[in-house]
Amino acid sequence: MPGLRKYIIGVLLAFFVGGAVIYALTSKVQAPAAIFTTLTGEKISLSEQKGKVVLVNFWATTCPACTHEMPALIQTYNAYKSKGFVVVAVAMPYDPPNYVLSYAQSHKLPFPVTLDVMGDAMRAFGDVRGTPTSFLIARDGSIVDQRTGELDFAWLENYLKKELG
Question: Coil, strand, or helix at residue 151?
Fold first, then answer.
């Protein structure tokens, strides 16, 4: 009977480990219930954005990669905003608010620009440190993709075409 016991334990272990792997590969990580404050004082709640595709972009005015990707981000936002695409630009806590405001105005950023003065948003998203860091959130509120560094706009556009038409 010891051989049968080992066999049964092995089968059960394989079943549970296999199930855990499948669960990890198929489970969806939900975006945090973050609330952002825009430059104009408006509150944006991620939970209220369900049904839309949301890109949360952590950036800084002093980050060359951040400012380099902004024109493409503006173009992508303008192309898909009427179809349910939302961009929330989150300025890092170390970025002076007057720099953020000046940049947003001079570059005519068409999407909400928020200040994360206390670092609550960066902590909610797993202690974001590097910029740019972006989180793409699906209509159901799950995080589809996370990228540190400049966005892959070809990939993003393909995703938006598939999801938003």
Answer: coil
A 10 A CB-CB count for 33 gives: 10
Domain count, the chain: 2
pLDDT digits (tens, 9 = 90+) for 45-79: 999 999 999 999 999 999 999 999 999 999 999 99
Q: Residue 148 is encoded by which pair of tokens?
A: 């540190």
Measured distance CA(61)–CA(139) in Å, rounded: 29
Strands, E, within 76-150: which ranges?
85-91, 113-115, 133-137, 143-148
Q: Check whether residue 150 and residue 139 sit in a common domain.
A: yes
76 and 117 in a single domain? The answer is yes
24 and 86 together in one domain: no
Domain that holds residue 44: 31-164
pTM beyond 0.85: no
Say if CB 66 and CB 132 are below 8 A apart.
yes
Domain co-membership, 157 together with 109: yes
Q: What is the DSSP code string of 2-21?
A: HHHHHHHHHHHHHHHHHHHH
Q: What is the DSSP letter of 29?
A: P
Token output for 57: 């972009």
DSSP lists the bridge partners of residue 113 as 89
CATH of the domain at 39: 3.40.30.10
